[in-house]
What does this fold into?
Amino acid sequence: MKFLVLCVFLLCFTQAFAQWGEQPMADKPSFMDRFYTGGGLGGGFSSTMDWFSISPIVGYKLSQRVAPGISFMYRYSNYKTYNPHLSTSDYGISPFVRVSVYGPFFLHVEYEYLNYEYPTPTVANPYESIRQTFSSFLAGGGIFQPIGRYAGFYATLLYNFSYQGNAYNSPYTSPVIFRVGITAGFGGR
It folds into this structure.
């Protein structure tokens, strides 16, 4: 329900601003005109676990509609059900391509390589954890809303085609992934 309210809110305001991909690029845009950066922050707090994540992105607009990039991710988790608490760290890298399709809407395709650590308590060692790597193919779409001339808000809804069920050791509890973030460009449009 929250996602639906967010989408309706964003759609109400998208007509008031120029959209990414619709503004013509200069005949010979400089490197800085095509370069963009940004990312997202995340976090969650509960009685059993706290987590924080940061995911910066760097990209380069190949054309008015095609914008490949790369995202880096770091996540810190603190499991409170252990005494003392058990902490883990995850990190990954994700090359992606976004293609503007109409107005504020874009398609998004991504390959994610994630090095993930999860607790595996045993009687002999209740604070043991295991580190594994996961590769995921993600695809979906999103919306981009400019914030001023060189920045914008984005929201993506992706499907993980590599999802193998809600296994205990999986980094995801669902094949559906929702992300939001901010991007900023450094040149004129």
